[in-house]
Amino acid sequence: MDRLVHDTFLEMTERSQPRFTDRERRLEIRKAETPCPELSRFFYTTVGADWGWYDRLDWDRSRWLTHASRSDLTSWIGHHRGNPAGYFELIQHPKNEIEILSFGLLPTFLGQGLGKELLSAAIECAWQGRPSRVWLSTCSMDHPRALPNYEAAGFTIFKTREGIASLPDHANTLWPESQTAK
Asked: Residue 159: exposed, middle, or buried by beta-carbon count in 10 A (0-12, 13-18, 19+)?
C-alpha cells in the first residue's frame, strides 16, 4: 500500500539545558553494553508498532546482530520502576555529528510525560561526545506529539520532504486482532 509521508529533519547545534533535575527524574537510563539483536528487535517492533515502523521488520537475526554490533551505535534503555519503558539509539556520524536514530516508549508508558524525560536523556547522552550537532528525523506517521516535543526540547527543522512510502501489506501489530465469537 502506498502512502504519502512527510519527513522532517531536525537539528540541535548547541547543547540545550537538561529539562529534568535528578530529583524529578522517573527514568533510570542505562547503556546497553552487550549487543543484543533480540532486544534491539523487541524495542524496534514494539515501540514502532503503532507508528508505521516497517523498514527493519524483515531483518533476520544476523542482520539485527550486525546492526546492534555497529561500532558507531550505542543503545540506551530507560527503565521506570524496574521495567524497561523505552529506548534510544545514537549513531556517531562523520564530521562529529550524532544522530538519534531510534527513539520511543513502549505503549504502556505513553501519556505519562516519560517521553520528554527520555528525550532529555537522549540529548544529554548525545552531547557527551561533544558533537558539532545532534540531529534526528520524524515523519507524519510518527506519534502526533513527536515533532512538537522535539521542537520544545530545542531542535530546529533543517529539512523537510514528502514522498510516497510503500508500506507492507500487513501492518506491524503487537497483538493479534481479537477474535469475535460466532
From this structure: exposed
178 inside domain: no
Which pLDDT does position 143 carry in this prediction? 87
Q: Name the domain count of the chain.
A: 1
Query: How confident is the model over 144-153, as pLDDT tens digits?
Result: 889 999 999 9
Residue 7 lies in a domain: yes
Give the Cβ contact number of residue 126 at 10 Å: 25
| Cα→Cα distances 70→35, 86, 92, 118, Å | 9, 20, 10, 22
- d(Cα 103, Cα 94) in Å, to the nearest integer? 21
Q: How many helices (H) and strands (E) does the chain have?
A: 4, 7
* pLDDT at position 24: 76
In this structure, is residue 67 part of a structural domain?
yes
Q: In CATH, what number is assigned to the domain containing residue 120?
A: 3.40.630.30
Contact 104, 54 (CB under 8 A): no
Q: Is residue 48 part of a domain?
A: yes
Parent domain of 115: 2-19+26-166
Alpha helices for 31-145 (secondary structure H): 37-48, 61-68, 114-127
Torsion of CA 27, 33, 37, 39, to 10 degrees: -20
**pTM recorded for the entire structure:** 0.88
